[in-house]
Amino acid sequence: MTGFDAELERALAELAARRLAAYRAGDATGILMADHDWLRPALSELRRRARDGADASVLQRLAGAIWEVVDGHSRVEEEVYFPAVDRLLAEAGRPNPMVMAMAAEHDALPDRHRQLMEALAAGKDPLPAIDAFSRALLVHFDNEEDLVFEDAREALQGEEGWRLAQAMAAFLGMGEQQGG
After folding, report:
1. Is 34 a residue whose pLDDT tops 70?
2. What domain count does the chain have?
3. In terms of residue numbers, what domain contains 128?
């Protein structure tokens, strides 16, 4: 195992621990924020390594790990989190059309990731593709945090929040589904 691989494993273990802590707190939104908080520096690290001329195989592994987190994050939002939050806000008489609009922002991400992986495979300068992927993702994070998460946290108090956190943990295949 290379130093890079060990570093990446540690970073992913840290993400798993943060997700688990949010799950144990019954904080469904916190599970998503753990991803946001992990992905922001991971994207910066990808850019830094590309700028510094890291080997394409290192960049591909880091971009692949980032994509695995992004893909799982997007799927759990679309299939579990957004529908539940949308329903709860509507039931509370506080519909927020931005909740379901966030799923549409996911549409550009697979293409941006594909462009990045193609640039790396072809030996092209990956920085433009890294920047495009990062911009799309970071704008999405800002939109979620500013337009959805505050309302969601208010709607997800008590048992509703706990049930949604459990459903998200199961969807994400988190190792520990029980306990507190």
Report:
1. yes
2. 1
3. 3-172
